[in-house]
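DATA SHEET
Item: assembly model
Revision: 1
Owner: S.N.
Input lines:
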Amino acid sequence: MLELLVYLLCGGILASGLLAVRLKSLLAASVSAGLASLFAAVCYLLLGAPDVAMTEASIGSGLSTIIFLYAIHKTRNARE
Amino acid sequence: MAAAVLIFFGIGFGVLRLALGPTVIDRIAAVDALTIVSISTMALYALVAERFIYLDAALVYGVLSFLAVLAVARYLERGL
């Protein structure tokens, strides 16, 4: 039961990582990368490391998405 | 058990909408829904494993999870 949920979350990490590589829109790709980090955080928690899950959720999924958005905004203004 | 089945279907259909979604808005809504499903997964696992330290990770993620969607919405509105 729990193993099935871990396998489903690992499949979600794979799917969102592939989408982050394949998507054309930069915004959707960065959001999808944040989703991969979110699934990794839940996977850490299910495998028994709640402190790692807390750090991964706050930094990987929250902060890095915002930094990616900021970088996309800056470089789009510079290109035009 | 029923909650685990609902979480299975939630993650499955959420990833499906993330993969198929024609516009960026669909993908962002799918990521937001998957965030809430992930928080419920953490809460369910805290109940199953009877270790309530896991609720702290769910709490931190619930406090921080709206920031990414808020940043994306602000980026779409008028650019961060």
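QC remark: The interface with chain B takes residues 1-2, 4-5, 8-9, 11-12, 15-16, 19, 25, 27-28, 31-32, 34-35, 38-39, 41-42, 45-46, 50-51, 53-54, 57-58, 61-62, 65-66, 69-70, 72-73 of chain A (CB under 8 Å).
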